[in-house]
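Why do we bother with a discrete structure alphabet at all? Because it lets us treat a fold like text: something you can write down, compare, and reason about line by line. To make this less abstract, here is a complete entry for Chromate efflux transporter. Read it the way you would read a sentence in a foreign language you are learning: slowly, and without expecting to understand everything at once.
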Amino acid sequence: MTIDHRREIDAPPQPEAERNSLSGSSALRRLYEIWTVSAKLGLTSFGGPIAHLGYFHEEYVKKRKWLDEKDYAELVALCQFLPGPASSQVGIGIGLRRGGLAGAAAAWLGFTLPSAAVMVLFALALNGLDVSDAGWLHGLKLTAVAVVAQAVWSMGRKLAAGPSRAAIAVFAAGLTLLLPGASGQVTAIAAAALAGLWLYRRHDADIAVPQVAPAPQPPLRRKAALLSLALFFALLLLLPLFAAQSSGAGGTALRLFDSFFRAGSLVFGGGHVVLPLLQSEVVPSGLVGQSDFLAGYGFVQAMPGPLFTFASYLGAVMNGLPGAIIATLAIFLPAFLLIIGVLPFWIWLCRNAKIQSALHGVNAAVVGILLAALYDPIWTSSVLSAGDFMLALLLFAMLAWWKLPPWTTVLSGGAGGMLLSLVTG
């Protein structure tokens, strides 16, 4: 922090004309540049959150030099520390550094809009069509099996390695299955955080607290950051109360906003983990059918950009274009509030031993929650025969062993499902 302040003090004052120019046409040009660069990434960034970070590094660090290697690495570390879509938060953070709050919004919109628009069109195309017995739809459901299985496999090797973290993951999976819905997931995360505080209080060498330099500071005051955090927690706590007491069309919109805001607030571990949270919000209540839910989740794997645009699809299924807009804004809003609120305090969070210990437990629980979702509802509603199992296994091999692009898996799943329907009659 002191280094940043010294730079600010030593910097020569800007002439009045230059400041006015920067706040006028130059600022608009900068926002347009941020939007166009992020939109290009939104159209071309296939492969999920880890691949997105590679695309961002190539574009923002190597090509445009908007930040250096060290700043980028620290920003990525912060975004993986927070709940929410890590790659989207990195983009928001870069936009924030480049153009303030308006730059953060431009970066998010450019990266998110392409995938969200296609997901909404897919939902509207399915509306009113009886596709429950379509072979390609069943193939997309089996694609979801392969995608989530690959995510459990990959995340488990990193976040649930070792006997104690594996035990936390198994416990979280069992608790989530025994207590269906958001309550079981939140309870599992809270219990895992307490277990992490106790188990990892000594910080063995393999989980030692990293000594990281201060993250790049955004052009915001700490008061703005604290206000952002206060708004995040206020919405998280008060939205369920207001939604429960509301009625009519406004009440429906508020309940929709509450469900997706809560899902976006509680996702640790990447886009795939949003699946069980959203499933518990929209499927048991009948807002979205199980087949439609899994079809959309399979289809979003073929999209560039963030996996969280699955919310755009669900909102469109529930309430057309207005529902899609509400769901999209609600699920990404926590990412905005958290990155804006936490970035100035990153150095303290990074070196706080208790927070690090709790997060090791939470990360292991995330693997267990996703494992529970793999069994129910994904496996139980999709794998109904030996042919289904073989196709799901083939799709898993394409992702996990042969490292083929996700869009090829989606196309293969749809084609395989149609072939299975012809063979089985």
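What the structure line is telling us, in plain words: The radius of gyration is 22 Å. Confidence is low (pLDDT under 50) at residues 1-22, 204-216.
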